[in-house]
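All the exercises in this workshop are built on plain-text protein records. A record pairs a protein's sequence with a compact description of its fold. Backbone structure tokens are a discrete shorthand for how the chain folds in space. Once this layout is familiar, the rest of the handout is easier to follow. As an example, a complete record with its sequence and its structure tokens follows.
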Amino acid sequence: MKRIVLLIVLAVSLLGVKSVSGQHYVGVRGGFGGGMSRFEPVLDDRFFSGLTSWGVSWKYRSDVKYVGVIQLDVLYAGQGFQRAENQFADTSYRRTVNSIMMPFMWHPHFQMFKGRSEFFLNLGVYACYNLNSSYEWVSDRNGVFESGDYEMIDIRDNRFGYGLVAGAGLGVNWGRFELVVEARYWFGYSDILKNHTKYEGNPMRSPMDQLNLSVGLYYRLGKYNDKNNGTTRINKTTKGRKSAEKRH
């Protein structure tokens, strides 16, 4: 079932590449957010904030209105979770995982104010590689009372991960630049810990989810195509000069 879902999302994403004539955007983005886990068996999973992400991004915008955009990001991002034995426990265990995350997304959009701004969605899949990790023991009354590096070992921990990603945001265009603000939810399908049948003491399932808010700045490469009608804009002075030459 998971493979079918991933293949469907990838197929929808590739629909954006319908026209060979399009615009390429490159940019940088960064943000902050938090994470939580969906472990099985279920304990008291808590959302905790303070995770950051930053990286580079690429977008391809074809001439197809509303749906002809795809996007790929490469991000250095923090993932994590916080768990307690039960809802009445005073102390909880917090893990932060630093990862390289690569979401590939379809970018449907609706333009406003004559193409100067747009509302957009991002829908797609992501893959990640977990670089390193740290842990903290936290008391509700006294804060962090123990912390350190968490050693990731192959027989217990998973380095690679994947899942689905969905976001919504607003973009503002001026000249060759585009400024975007986006809220994004990462739904993990993979487990951060190997199954308990492979390593005794691990849970049956250990996917992680993330929620973050980010800001991005993009720069358009090449010629400018009008996003409303797909035609290339021509400088008025140049157009007038050509008309005058034809009359002579």
User: Anything to note?
Assistant: The longest helix spans residues 2-14. Confidence is low (pLDDT under 50) at residues 15-20, 227-245. DSSP finds two helices and eleven strands in the chain. The first strand starts at residue 23 and ends at 37.
